[in-house]
Design goal:
Length: about 450
């Protein structure tokens, strides 16, 4: 079972980087093999939606993190082994008309695979790994593959012994052709191990916490000290939701940190569903069917849609998922900002109240329309929090620390005046007039 999400959410949370801008994937990716990188990308693309599987994966990584286990193989061995195996596919495409690999490359590939098989055997038989209960099924799967009688000659080979041409030819036929599927199963297990150890290292170095997944549909979210993992000097916040308070109406002035806070919470929820450690001090959450965020919604020029209509379509999509009785976590940052204040006010109130009735889902709605709070206070399911601004003379200062209530902070014109924009425009016009008189 996998978590429902979409491209908009992937973009909002910057799961994958673009050009020179790294994403969340890059933060967790310290893998040693290309195969592990592919596995990790798949995990980030398809988070889990099963309580048992999430906790199982989390416990595996937590155990490795506690033991400080390092990846027990050389990356160069995998490069040789992968090149060697890929060549078999290329050879098939060419109809075996010509050799894709030289004799030396075949020898290197065979030797690399044999070394890998011996090294993984030592790893899974080491006492500390045998005693690790959370990784038992994976360890036993690897041991079962290595115990297959077809690999007896491989496992009897002395490591680093020089193989004869006849032995290389025989092993080439065995490993690259006859038992290719079993070799691929073994490598898949090693790639997954590489991912676990990579993420465990991230958890240790960054002091990330391993969340606890709770039963689906209970709308419980408790996070202590959550922050965005990409910030150099983050301000952490405590945050909680429940069936009794399944909506948070978030207010705050521009630059107060609303979008960053929304990304911090939704990133933690998304990553927790992968079974990975998160940027927080403590976390437990009800497993969800899906996560949908709307933070940076673009105009849909492809269908000729304005920003407002794109927002309407987004709300419609979320409503359809909710009507299917799914447990969702939903964020709308500045809902209906693409229309006039009156319509935005009315629509925000009506949609938020309708969301409040969906007790098995959780919502955060941020807005500048603080007046909407008066009507929303009538619903006991809606909580109110804000990110404050403190004025130091005429200079706004931001704490980024979440507080209860609604704020009417509006400092847009103060910032514009502080930047001297109006003065620049006024003086620029005078200079233009002076230049015209001189001409």
């Amino acid at each position: 079972m996998y978590l429902l999400t979409d491209e908009q959410t992937i973009e909002d949370l910057r799961i994958f980087g673009k050009r020179d801008s790294p994403g969340l994937f890059d933060l967790y990716n310290h893998s040693h093999t290309r195969g592990a990188e592919t596995v990790l990308k798949e995990m980030f693309t398809r988070p889990l939606s099963d309580q048992q599987e999430i906790n199982r994966r989390s416990n595996i990584i937590k155990s490795f993190a506690g033991m400080s286990v390092r990846f027990p193989f050389e990356g160069a061995l995998f490069d040789m082994a992968e090149k060697y195996l890929i060549a078999a596919d290329e050879q098939k495409k060419q109809g075996n008309q010509q050799a894709v690999l030289s004799e030396k490359e075949v020898a290197n590939g065979v030797t690399a695979l044999i070394s890998l098989m011996h090294q993984i055997k030592c790893f899974v038989e080491s006492p500390e790994i045998v005693a690790m209960e959370s990784w038992t099924s994976e360890r036993e799967a690897i041991a079962f593959l290595l115990l297959d009688p077809v690999f007896d000659p491989v496992m009897r080979e002395q490591q680093k012994a020089k193989l004869s041409y006849a032995a290389i030819t025989a092993y080439d036929l065995l490993l690259r052709h006859r038992e290719r599927s079993k070799i691929e199963q073994l490598l898949t297990q090693i790639y997954q191990l590489d991912v676990y150890l990579s993420v465990a290292k991230v958890a240790r170095e960054r002091n990330f916490v391993f969340p606890k997944a709770l039963e689906k549909g209970k709308s419980i979210l408790r996070i202590r000290g959550v922050y965005h993992p990409e910030l150099a000097k983050p301000v952490s916040n405590d945050f909680a939701m429940s069936p009794e308070r399944n909506i948070i109406f978030l207010t705050g002035a521009n630059m107060a940190g609303k979008s960053t806070f929304l990304r911090s919470v939704s990133t933690a929820i998304y990553v927790a569903h992968i079974g990975f450690p998160v940027a927080a001090a403590e976390m437990e959450f009800s497993v969800l069917d899906g996560v949908f965020t709307t933070i940076n919604l673009p105009d849909n020029l492809g269908i000729g849609a304005s920003h407002f209509y794109a927002e309407v379509l987004r709300v419609k999509k979320v409503a359809a998922e909710l009507q299917a009785n799914k447990s969702l976590f939903i964020i709308f940052d500045e809902m209906f900002r693409g229309t006039n204040v009156k319509d935005a006010h009315e629509a925000t109130v009506e949609i938020t109240i309708a969301f409040a009735a969906k007790k098995n889902s959780m919502f955060i709605i941020s807005s500048h329309i603080v007046e909407a709070g008066e009507r929303l206070r009538q619903s006991p399911s809606i909580g109110f929090q804000y990110l404050p601004t403190r004025m130091n003379d005429n200079v706004p200062e931001y704490t980024y620390a979440l507080e209860d209530g609604i704020t009417a902070d509006r400092h847009g014109m103060i910032i514009i005046r502080n930047e001297g924009i109006l003065e620049t425009l006024k003086n620029g016009r005078k200079r233009a007039q002076a230049d015209k008189i001189q001409q």
